[in-house]
Structure formats: structure tokens, C-alpha cells
Amino acid sequence: MSRHQIRRLGLSEDQINGWLTTSRLRPVFRGVYAVGSSAIPERGRIRAALLVCGPKALVSHRSAAFLLGIGERSPKVIDVIAPGKRGRAVDGIRVHDVPYPTPPELVRVGGIPCTSVARTVVDLAGTYGDRQLRETVERAATERLLDLAAIDAILDGGRRRRGAPCLRRILDDWRPVAETAKFATFRSLFEAKLLPLIAAGLPLPQVNAPVRAAERILEVDPLWERERFVVEADSRRHHGIEVAFERDHLRHRELLAAHYGVLPVTWREVEEEPDAVFAVVRQELHRRMDPSVP
User: Fold this and answer.
1) DSSP 2
2) The pLDDT of residue 52 is above 60
3) Phi and psi based region of residue 59 (left: phi greater than 0; alpha: psi -120 to 50; beta: remaining)
4) What phi and psi values does residue 235 have, to the nearest 5 degrees?
5) Torsional sign, CA 132, 135, 140, 143
6) Of the chain's two ends, which shows fewer C-beta atoms within 10 Å, N or C?
7) What percent of the chain has a predicted confidence (pLDDT) above 70?
8) Cβ 88 vs Cβ 78: under 8 Å
9) Contact 87, 81 (CB under 8 A)
10) Higher model confidence: residue 234 or residue 257?
11) Of 63, 121, 72, 132, the residue nearest 95 (C-alpha)
């Protein structure tokens, strides 16, 4: 609650100061307080930041990515867009000097106003490097929230946007698989990373495709059914538990027994050697389409 809101409840300045002394009120930001508990949930901190910045303030950038489910974690400093200069000198709040969002670029998450997924991605293009921005796009795809048309509309809206060339390059990688991604259920961020890489210039694979093994149905992703070929994410970064890692190797054996070719690909290979991964996938698909290819 803001100091103004507390006064409206009938407390005097002396009473407010007394509550602060006894910790019945706990400062969150300058002039905004939590009542009672010292454990302030993250969304409580975000609401407090908006109180500081005024009635038209909204969450943006990394903080919006956290609320929308496309950010890895909540940032310590809360990102806000606010008219005027309110909140600009408050520790723990970063007010961004970017155009105020249009109505299509605004959403509410749990009652908290914030930028839409598309606008958040565009804003982050101005602050993120290539790798962080690419992972944000992949997280949006994982959550089935990647809307290329909405992002394009913002980028083509007549304003110069920092990071726009980098973002356009990333989106161009996703355009061939945009429709496929809408219906995909990615089991991990890794699988979202794989799809645009291995589908560029190749026949589009199936995603979430059922494959009959000896004793059960396996869901694989991605799959070229006609060529009976599967690429599987294989990484201790996402399968750090030994049981899960062994389970993936069992899947690979079952697929091989069912006469499917399997290419396990690691996170490091996708991050550091994408051209080499693509070349192997392309070669294997061509070999399976034309047995005369060595």
C-alpha cells in the first residue's frame, strides 16, 4: 500500500510512523509498504513498483517476461513503463524510456497490467544479446505464445526499434515452422531450439508424433515418418538426473529396434555447432530418401 492509501484508511502520520517502528508496516519501495508479513511474494513487489510509478504504469521487459511465463526468472530490479518521471530514482525499479504500448500491446496477468508477449519480445530485443533473445523466442514457442504476425506488426509500426535486425533474423528462422510450432507441445526448451534449426530447407517434420515400439507407443519430436528418422534432444543440462538420462537411452534403443534412425543431439552442439548438426540431418534424410546417396 502507498502512504496515501494508508492515510485514506484513517491512519495519521504518527500512527503510520508507529506501525513502521513496530514492523506492522514494512517498506517495499520508497513510500510503498507491505502490511504485516516480512515475506513479500514476487507479484507483491511488482504491484508495489506500479504503485510507486503511478496509475498508468505497467510491467515490461524482463519483469513482463517473468509474468508471461517466457522469462527464466524474476529480475531483482523490476522493469516498468510509466508516463512522466515517477519511479525513475527509486532503487529496485527501472523505468524504461520506450513508447507507451498501444491497446493491442497490453494484457493483464493476475490483474497486473503488463506488455503483451509480442511487445515484450520487441522490447527485450533492445536490451538482450542474440542468445538471450533467441531463448526468449524459444520460450514463447514452448508456451504456444509465439505470434510472428503480432511481432511483425510492432516492428513495422513506423518506429525504430533497438535490436530489430537481430530479432528479425531470429524470426526468419521460425517462419518456415511457424504453423507447426502452433500445435507443438515441446517437452523442453531444447526441443523448441531444435525445430527451426533442423527444419530450415528440409521437409517439415512431424512434432509430438506417436511411434509404435515393441511394447509401447513413444511420442517423438521431431519425426520424418516417411524416412523413419528421429532427432532427439540429448543433454545432461536438461536430464541431470541419471534415471532420466538412462530413460532417454532406452527410448533410443526402442526406436532403433523399430527400425527408426535416431540422431541424439546435445545442447552444446545446437548452441555451438548448428551448421554441423544441420548438415548431418540433411545428409541422413537425403540418404534415406535416395539409397544411392552415400
Assistant:
1) B
2) yes
3) beta
4) -155, 135
5) negative
6) C
7) 82
8) no
9) no
10) 257
11) 63
Contacts of range 208-215, beta carbons closer than 8 Å, 24 or more positions apart: 208/183, 208/184, 211/255, 211/258, 211/260, 212/258, 213/254, 213/255, 213/257, 213/258, 214/254, 214/257, 214/258
Distances (CA, A) of 36 to 5, 27, 56, 108: 16, 11, 27, 27
pLDDT of residue 159: 81
Q: pTM for the full model?
A: 0.78
Cis peptide before 291 (omega within 30 of 0): no
Element (H, E) at 33: strand 32-35
Q: 120-144: buried (b, 16+ CB within 10 Å) or exposed (e) per residue?
A: bbbbbbbbbeeeebbbbbbbbbbee
Higher pLDDT among residues 198 and 273, named by residue? 273
Length of the chain, in residues: 294
User: 172, 196 in Cβ contact below 8 A?
Assistant: no
Each residue of 93-125: pLDDT tens digit?
A: 899 989 999 999 999 999 999 999 999 999 999
